[in-house]
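ok trying this again, last paste got cut off
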Amino acid sequence: MVKILLWWLIFWLTGLFTYLMYDFGLLIQFYTQDMTMLTYLITVLFAATTCSVGYKSYVGHRDYSTEWFISDVVITLGMIGTIVGFIIMLSGTFDTLKIADANSVRVLIASMSKGLYTALNTTLAGLISSVIIKAQLVVCDDQ
């Protein structure tokens, strides 16, 4: 009984954090600025795993090996997003650069910032999702 209550606490704190991000306007930016759309995949895996942990804890299921695996998958997807974001950031950006032209430098910085935002955004999504899933699993898993 205590396990499911602790899981509910983590679940509602995550929901509160998500609502606060939405209320401050950060959640929409979090998803729309990602060029790879990996944050959507990470979020879907996170939500499905959270529901799975809660359900298994409620019915007394003892095998959480799939959930432990997914907690590692979301962090790996975040790292893949980091690499892809850096590739986006550096691909073809220096081809049209003219140092003497200030507008050319502004365009370069704007295009690089999109890739950097994608890299950091997917990393953050993967890390936060993994930490929350692992916190749920530590609370609910008997091992």
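PB: full thing came through this time. The two ends are 17 Å apart (CA to CA).
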